[in-house]
């Protein structure tokens, strides 16, 4: 940790007691905090802007200058801490992230150094979240806010003829449709006079549909019209919430890691390279049902892969689903390749005693490897107390659905061989041929990873994919939870605590909390 500022040493004042030019830049960060999805009022921006402007015109008395220096330092550190680590404890949002994360910068030291060099912007750059998507999301936020007064949204789109617009049809809303698609970047050039739903507009609608998790058929129907009706301000808020989620999500320190963005139904494999994060592959996934078996948000290390796995049916599923089914249809056990397992060994007899033993926790039901196995032919193990892991599926047709929340909470992956090859990159004896052969064995085959691979379950409804901004529905209502949490009053910052002795800001609790922790609060 860098040495703290001496108590008598000012940060924003030069040797003559006048404000450094860096103070004006710092105040601009606070007043423009909305450009980062933050709130100027959280940092007393208006008062500080006035105080700095007054101090630049007329040098204040020494005690007033010192007080201004103190106040500005406190609020700037709070801003930098929020920018880096967010404003809400992830646990309040139901997220549990505790794996080893990439080292965070010492923001107080970065600020001291940047101001001393008269390059304050370096401190702000150091505080930006390290996720690759963040800069593009920030640009998208500014763009959507710039559309707030765009004429394309001044009037509602009219009703569609017959409920949907087919190629070649006329529609009174075509000019407005073209303006919105152009403003959003889906239509490269505005047509001179849009009279029919032509090929250019269809292509633009397909682009819009792809970016909004809609079937990209080019047909303008109710769901697409509803998405087009969402005002830019609402989309800007959605982007801001996703930026906040990135701040709250730790970047793993491990050289390779996997993320699953639950509402997007997408898995991505990443690796650190030359100081940045590179995406190596992505694939569609199936996640837990929104109604009752949601995929939790957490991180855990993948430690081994199991090919041709048994499926040990979780007790909750056995009680609610499997045992009642077997009571009605005892032949279901053999048809599904299942068996009872207990202290006495393995049994395939569907007896009342065995069923009662399952309900009492004295036996379990497992499904043998094979074409009906619910895990498919491969399971990626990340030991956790919620029994969540990644696996294939015997029902790959579900990956073609736009909405893919069908599981009991685990994550089903579309391309297991590709992920296995990526995970086992440092074990050349695990060739693609060996992987595929192992997926067809009658008994499980295990491949232990040389280096654990962290897996993070994330939640973002605005994402950058293939260089474009995409929006997905708030599957589990988590955007609403985060938005409500951000509206709660924040604890006041104790003015008696000197920011000149503030600690390095390594935690995601934010600068204010770090300062409070230093004082024993």
What's this entry about, in short?
By secondary structure, the chain is of the alpha+beta class.
CATH superfamily of the largest domain: L,D-transpeptidase catalytic domain-like
The CATH C-level class name of the largest domain: Mainly Beta
Sketch the major β-sheet. 8 strands, mixed, barrel
Secondary structure tally, helices? 17
Specify the helix fraction band: 25-40%
Report how far the terminal alpha carbons are from each other.
21 Å
Mean pLDDT: 90
The fraction of residues in strands falls at 15-25%
The structural class is alpha+beta
Radius of gyration: 28 Å
* CATH fold call of the largest domain: L,D-transpeptidase catalytic domain-like
Q: How many distinct domains?
A: 4
Structure description:
The protein has 521 residues and is α+β, with helices and mostly antiparallel strands. The protein folds into 4 domains: 21-127 and 490-518, no CATH class; 146-234, PGBD-like superfamily/PGBD (Muramoyl-pentapeptide Carboxypeptidase, domain 1); 255-310 and 370-458, Beta Barrel (L,D-transpeptidase catalytic domain-like); 315-368, no CATH class. Helix content is 36%, strand content 17%. It is built from 17 helices and 16 strands. It has helices at residues 21-31, 45-57, 62-85, 107-116, 121-127, 134-146, 174-183, 199-211, 222-229, 232-248, 315-328, 332-335, 352-359, 416-423, 432-438, 478-487, 511-518, and strands spanning 95-96, 256-261, 266-273, 276-288, 297-307, 311-312, 338-342, 345-347, 363-367, 378-381, 390-391, 405-407, 411-413, 445-458, 462-465, 468-471. It has an 8-stranded mixed barrel with strand order 2-3-4-13-11-10-5-14. A hairpin with a 4-residue loop joins strand 2 and strand 3. Helix 1 packs antiparallel against helix 2 (45-57), helix 2 (45-57) runs antiparallel to helix 3 and helix 3 (62-85) packs parallel to helix 5. The radius of gyration is 28 Å and the shape is globular.
């Amino acid at each position: 940790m860098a040495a703290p500022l001496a108590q008598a040493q000012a940060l924003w004042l030069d040797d003559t007691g006048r404000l450094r030019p860096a103070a004006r830049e710092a105040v601009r960060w606070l007043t423009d905090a909305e450009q980062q999805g933050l709130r100027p009022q959280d940092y007393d921006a208006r008062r500080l802007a006035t105080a700095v402007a007054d101090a630049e015109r007329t040098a204040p008395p020494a005690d007033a200058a010192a007080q201004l220096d103190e106040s500005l330092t406190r609020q700037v550190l709070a801003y930098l801490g929020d920018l880096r680590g967010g404003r809400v404890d992830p646990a309040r949002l139901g997220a549990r992230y505790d794996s080893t994360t990439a080292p965070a910068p010492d923001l107080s030291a970065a600020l001291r150094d940047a101001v001393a060099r008269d390059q304050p912007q370096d401190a702000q750059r150091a505080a930006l979240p390290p996720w690759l998507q963040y800069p593009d999301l920030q640009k998208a936020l500014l763009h959507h806010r710039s559309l707030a007064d765009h004429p394309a949204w001044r009037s509602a789109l009219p009703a569609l003829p017959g409920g949907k617009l087919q190629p070649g049809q006329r529609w009174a809303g075509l000019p407005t449709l073209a303006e919105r698609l152009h403003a959003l970047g889906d239509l490269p050039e505005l047509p001179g006079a849009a009279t029919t739903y032509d090929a250019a507009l269809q292509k633009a609608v397909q682009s819009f549909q792809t970016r909004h998790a809609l079937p990209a058929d080019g047909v303008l129907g109710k769901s697409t019209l509803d998405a087009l009706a969402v005002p830019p301000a609402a989309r800007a808020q959605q982007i801001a919430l996703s930026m906040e989620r990135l701040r709250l999500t730790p970047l793993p320190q491990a050289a390779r890691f996997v993320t699953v963005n639950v509402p997007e139904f997408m898995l991505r494999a990443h690796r650190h390279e030359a100081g940045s994060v590179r995406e190596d592959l992505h694939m569609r996934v199936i996640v837990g049902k929104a109604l009752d078996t949601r995929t939790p948000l957490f991180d855990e290390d993948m430690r081994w892969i199991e090919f041709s796995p048994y499926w040990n049916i979780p007790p909750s599923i056995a009680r609610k689903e499997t045992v009642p089914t077997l009571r009605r249809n005892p032949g279901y056990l053999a048809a599904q390749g299942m068996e009872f397992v207990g202290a006495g060994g393995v049994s395939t007899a569907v007896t009342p005693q065995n069923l009662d033993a399952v309900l009492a926790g004295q036996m379990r039901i497992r499904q043998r490897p094979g074409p009906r196995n619910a895990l498919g032919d491969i399971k990626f193990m990340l030991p956790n107390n919620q029994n969540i892991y990644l696996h294939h599926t015997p029902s790959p047709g579900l990956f073609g659905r736009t909405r893919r929340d069908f599981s009991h909470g685990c994550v089903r992956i579309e391309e297991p061989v590709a992920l296995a090859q990526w995970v086992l990159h440092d074990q050349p004896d695990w060739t693609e041929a060996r992987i595929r052969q192992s997926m067809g064995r009658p008994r499980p085959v295990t491949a232990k990873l040389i280096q654990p691979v962290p897996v993070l379950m994330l939640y973002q409804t605005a994402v950058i994919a293939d260089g474009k901004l995409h929006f997905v529905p708030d599957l589990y209502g988590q955007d609403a939870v985060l938005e409500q949490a951000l509206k709660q009053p924040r604890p006041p910052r104790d003015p008696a605590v000197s920011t000149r002795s503030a600690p390095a800001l390594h935690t995601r609790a934010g600068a204010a909390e770090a300062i409070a922790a230093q004082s024993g609060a």
